[in-house]
Write a structure and sequence with these properties.
Distance between the termini: 34 Å
Number of domains: 2
Number of helices: 3
Mean pLDDT: 86
Helix content: 40-55%
Low-confidence stretches: none
Largest sheet: 2 strands, parallel
Structural class: alpha+beta
Strand content: 5-15%
């Protein structure tokens, strides 16, 4: 394997590890929005989740109910992140 290819693969591997770490941190610490924060949204919003999603249906519905101009879509037999 040439040196240029080795460097390229190393950069990709480092990038993948960084993305994985950022995703892990985000998953367990964000979002920090409250229903009061969501209530300030003044544009139409589509709140969308899969019926087998990581977020619970009650959590998804509370977001939907907090946003004045929201519509709700629950996609059957799906996770939104897969």
């Amino acid at each position: 394997m040439g040196a240029a290819l080795r460097r390229k693969l190393t950069r990709r591997s480092e990038h993948a590890r960084a993305v994985e770490e950022k995703t892990r941190v985000m998953t367990f610490s964000q979002p920090t929005l409250t229903t009061k924060d969501l209530a300030r949204i003044s544009v139409p919003v589509l709140v969308m989740a899969g019926d087998d999603d990581v977020a619970t249906l009650s959590h998804t519905c509370s977001m939907y109910e907090a946003i004045r101009e929201a519509q709700l879509a629950i996609v059957p037999a799906r996770r939104t992140c897969s």
